[in-house]
Automatic annotation (TrEMBL):
Stretches assigned to the RNA polymerase sigma factor 70 region 4 type domain: 128-180
RNA polymerase sigma-70 region domain ranges (all copies): 25-92
Family recorded in the similarity comment: Belongs to the sigma-70 factor family. ECF subfamily.
One MF annotation (Gene Ontology) recorded for this entry: DNA binding
Protein name: RNA polymerase sigma-H factor
A biological process from GO: DNA-templated transcription initiation
Domain of life: Eukaryota
Length: 193
């Protein structure tokens, strides 16, 4: 059965009074929304707090939700807006941010009998360099790039999530990729990436 239909059916069940339908929706999307927010805000506790807020807002608004877009797109839109609010607040009130090594997601490396510690270190360093390059993108380019490349949303879904025209999303994505190529080219040429 199509996931879009499943989501819409769960929303309809929730709207008709079945509260545990929301629990199923939250189970489906909690880790994806958290991962997106962690990459955006780069602070584990804040990402957890914002994830909770995303689902709180979704819960309060779900009675009136109409399927104009996929449910997941709507959730990403809420998450994206809260991440923007977080960054605005952070700009006004700077706070301590975690180093890449403190973000659990940055430390997820396969460890089996065939793992090479040198390769693991190189992978971690490569990931850190790429994250730093992504952080140098403009806020709109970064949002488009993360939703498209990290979260796997289609351009239409990114446009709906960020309230942009699809053509504008394409332009931001193109500029983001070009900028990343420029930033990362010296590393490729030196075989550091």
């Amino acid at each position: 059965m199509d996931k879009l239909i499943d989501d819409e059916m769960l929303v309809a069940q929730f709207q008709s009074g079945r509260q545990n339908a929301f629990d199923e929706l939250m189970k489906r999307y909690k880790s994806k929304i958290f991962s997106y927010l962690l990459r955006s805000v780069r602070n584990y506790e804040d990402a957890e707090d914002i994830t909770i807020e995303v689902f709180f807002k979704a819960y309060r608004a779900l009675d009136n939700w109409q399927p104009k877009a996929k449910f997941s797109t709507w959730l990403y839109k809420i998450a994206s807006n809260l991440a923007i609010d977080y960054h605005r607040t952070k700009m006004r009130h700077p706070v301590y941010a975690l180093e890449d090594t403190e973000i659990p997601e940055a430390n997820l490396v396969a460890t089996d009998l065939h793992s090479d510690p040198v390769q693991q270190i190189e992978e971690q360093e490569r990931g850190r360099i790429i994250r730093e390059a992504v952080d140098q993108l403009s806020p709109k380019q970064k949002a488009v790039f993360m939703l498209s490349r990290y979260e796997g949303l289609q351009l239409k879904e990114v446009a709906e999530t960020l309230d942009m025209a699809e053509g504008t999303v394409k332009i931001h994505l193109h500029r983001a990729v070009k900028r990343l190529q420029t930033l990362l080219r010296p590393l490729w040429e030196n075989n550091e990436i």
